[in-house]
Write a structure and sequence with these properties.
Order of helices and strands: HHHHHHHHEEEEEEEEEE
Radius of gyration: 23 Å
Strand content: 15-25%
Shape: elongated
Strand order of the largest sheet: 1-10-9-4-3-2
Number of domains: 2
Distance between the termini: 40 Å
Largest sheet: 6 strands, antiparallel
Number of strands: 10
Length: 283
């Protein structure tokens, strides 16, 4: 199985399919508020996993009821709920997928294809049940349940092995020991310009605004882009930094995510100034 997944990640021929889909999705999902909502920016957490749990939970419950006699009505209802929930789940997943790198998108493409098959089978199952043909509905439902679990396995691979939509900056916090660490002389920091410094081997972004200094982890939590190379932007009166790779925007004073594709905040460190030296500690 590991070798099969590795081959899938390296199957560059799939890029001929995924690249046009990615461009089309970016054109369709162009309004920033829509993209941010589907990324889960307002929640501070990617929304696709929560929606997927609701949809898969409905179908799992329907599969259990299908093996219990005289449960046709609740099973039909749950299949319908899952089919309805699959629409926003798919939109959120497609929005996240469009911002991934090539290897992630290849696995995600197969994940997507499995979900299309799943939705088709469950839609046919629902139609059969509504006609009163519950035997055919159950057979189609069990087939769909098998496919959706293959899709869920691929989704787990995307998240846990490939780090898709996982806040990749958080792991860097564990490499910083507790206590105050010198970061830079305040006199050496330019005003209004993000600069890269380090605490041990962990790169951090340092931003000075007058006498106030913010220190954030420097590698973007979305796909580890170098935030110190990003531009400073104003969002609703707040000073923010925009990732140069994928455009995620974080507020500099507290790391709050303002725009996706990042769905969670950028870790920010506590700061103090001692003898004109900026020091940082874990949040």
């Amino acid at each position: 199985m590991k070798q099969l997944l590795t081959r899938l990640e390296q199957a560059s021929g799939l890029d001929r399919i995924s690249d046009p889909i990615q461009r089309a999705l970016r054109a369709v999902l162009k309004p920033r508020l829509l993209r941010d909502t589907l990324h889960g920016v307002q929640l501070g957490h990617p929304v696709h996993p929560a929606l997927a749990s609701f949809t898969l939970g409905s179908w799992t419950s329907a599969a259990v009821l299908d093996v219990i006699p005289r449960q046709e009505l609740p099973a039909t209802t749950l299949v319908g709920v899952g089919v309805a929930g699959a629409v926003p789940t798919a939109l959120a997943g497609l929005n996240d997928w469009a911002e991934l790198d090539h290897e992630q998108r290849r696995v995600g493409l197969v994940h997507m294809a499995a979900n299309v098959v799943t939705l088709g089978l469950y839609s046919a199952s629902l139609a059969a049940r509504l006609r009163g043909d519950h035997r055919t509905g159950r057979i189609l439902g069990f087939a769909a349940f098998g496919v959706v679990n293959v899709s869920a396995f691929l989704g787990g691979h995307l998240a846990y092995k490939q780090g898709a939509q996982v806040n990749q900056a958080v792991a860097q916090l564990h490499r910083i020991s507790d206590g105050w660490h010198p970061v830079a002389d305040i006199s050496a920091l330019p005003h209004g310009v993000p600069v890269a410094r380090s605490i041990g081997e962990v790169p951090v972004l340092v931003y000075r605004d007058g006498d106030r200094v913010s220190v954030l982890l420097e590698r973007c939590g979305h796909e580890t882009g170098p935030l110190s190379e990003g531009r400073v932007v104003d969002v609703d009166g707040d000073t923010c930094v925009e990732c140069p790779w994928h455009g995620s925007v974080f507020r500099l004073n507290d790391g709050l995510v303002m725009h996706g594709p990042a769905g969670s905040d950028q870790p920010v460190l506590r700061t103090r100034i001692v003898n004109d030296v900026v020091e940082a500690n874990l949040p």
